[in-house]
Design brief:
alpha/beta, Aspartate Aminotransferase, domain 2, Aspartate Aminotransferase, domain 1, 2 domains, 7-stranded mixed beta sheet, binds pyridoxal-5'-phosphate
Length: about 400
């Protein structure tokens, strides 16, 4: 394909293509929920919770208003309070640490693995030392499944078990992925998901969920998301939140979940095309053996000095790109005051300057993707390839 060939506007994440596929069923589902009139915790919510649990293999799924609340509710369930510390990566969306700070506890940032961009399990011991040195009680680890690939849970679970730490998997970007045969949702004490529209399983507004295999946690979370209600709605037995998944969003998610398996497969095809089209010129994603990414993002790395020019060149050709994330949390205004494990986060800080994400969604057709790849190759012609371990 030549670079002059006209292409329709390229979307970073094309939600219209999915609508064209499931639009009619979706409209019936939405109008059905509107007409039934059970707008709060209608039957669609329980049905979606059951289907999501079946999809991932978790014993329980509890819908929440969004993925950030889902994290906050898990931390409330753990009784997190001031003086407690939670170990989490800094190379993530702010919500991961925000929920910890809500409860007056302290996030301690750990560095990431340079190949996967996820929490480096080898850095956890240093983070624990940092907590102890600061007089904080480490209570939990929040691992993030960044860009759709699950964190290295064998090592993280072993560390948490050894040190009596709870494990929360922030799978806002990873729901639908699997780690050595286990799907996001069944690992650790809790897994949180987000249905923000741009996530792999997105609704038409805000939505989230918590998955757990523990019966007592399931009951506690159902209470926490509903103002801490007891058996009877006007006997509130604890301080909770108002954070339920809307009936309308659950109706939408039921339709989307029905095609999700198929979309996950389509995402593998799109990612493989990018791999073969770009791997000789840019550092392309590394997926761990026996793991399947849900490809929330397809993120490559280019030298820091070339990134702006790379993005500008693609933009000039109508190809949108995004940087997730230009600054790790330890460099952001609201989060600078929180401790970092050991002497700093060199990998997070370097990677933040080099990453750039390309358009990624299950409906990216071959011709459009060939155009994107050609545009990227042209922009990378004189740019040295980033190699791992050069920081
Ligand atoms: C999107 C996201 C969240 C928050 O989800 P919301 O539903 O937008 O509240 C949390 N963590 C990560 C890593 C995310 O990407």
């Amino acid at each position: 394909m030549t670079m002059n060939m006209p292409v329709p506007p390229i979307e970073f994440i094309d939600l219209k293509a999915q609508r064209a596929r499931i639009g009619a069923r979706m409209e019936r589902a939405i109008m059905g929920a509107v007409e039934a009139g059970q707008y709060i915790l209608g039957p669609q919510v329980a049905e979606f919770e059951q289907k999501m649990a079946a999809f991932c293999g978790a014993k329980h799924v509890i819908g929440t208003a969004n993925g950030t609340d889902a994290l906050g509710i898990c931390l409330m369930a753990l009784g997190l309070r001031p003086g407690d510390a939670v170990i989490c990566p800094a190379f993530t969306f702010a919500a991961t640490a925000e929920a910890v700070a809500w409860l007056g506890a302290t996030p301690i940032f750990v560095d990431i693995d340079e190949a996967t961009y996820n929490m480096d399990p080898k850095a956890l011991a240093v983070a624990l030392d940092t907590a102890t040195r600061l007089g904080l009680k480490a209570k939990a680890v929040i691992a993030v499944d960044l860009f759709g690939q699950m964190a290295d849970y064998d090592a993280i679970e072993a560390f948490c078990a050894e040190h009596g730490l709870k494990l929360i998997c922030d799978s806002a970007q990873g729901f639908g992925a699997s780690y050595k045969g286990r799907r996001a949702g069944v690992i650790g004490d809790f897994t949180t998901a987000s249905f923000f529209p741009a996530k792999p399983l997105g609704c038409y507004g805000d939505g989230g969920a918590i998955a757990t295999n523990d019966d007592a946690s399931d009951a506690l979370i159902r209470s926490l998301r509903f103002h801490g209600k007891g058996d009877y709605k006007y006997d509130n037995v604890r301080i909770g939140m108002n954070s339920r998944l809307d009936t309308l969003q659950a109706a939408i998610l039921l339709e989307k979940l029905a095609v999700f398996e198929d979309e996950i497969a389509a995402r593998q095809v799109v990612a493989a095309r990018y791999d073969s089209g770009l791997a000789d010129m840019a550092l392309t994603p590394f997926i761990m053996p026996e793991c399947v990414s849900v490809w929330a993002q397809y993120t490559i790395r280019v030298p820091a000095a070339s990134r702006d020019a790379f993005q500008a060149a693609l933009k000039a050709k109508g190809v949108p790109t995004t940087v997730y994330y230009p600054k790790p949390l330890n460099e952001q205004t609201a989060y600078k005051r929180f401790p970092v494990a050991g002497n700093g986060l060199p990998v997070s800080e370097r990677v933040a300057k080099e990453v750039v994400s390309l358009p990624m969604h299950p409906y990216l057709d071959e011709a459009t993707q060939a155009y994107i790849i050609a545009a990227a190759r042209e922009a990378l012609a004189d740019v040295p390839k980033v190699k791992l371990g050069q920081g």
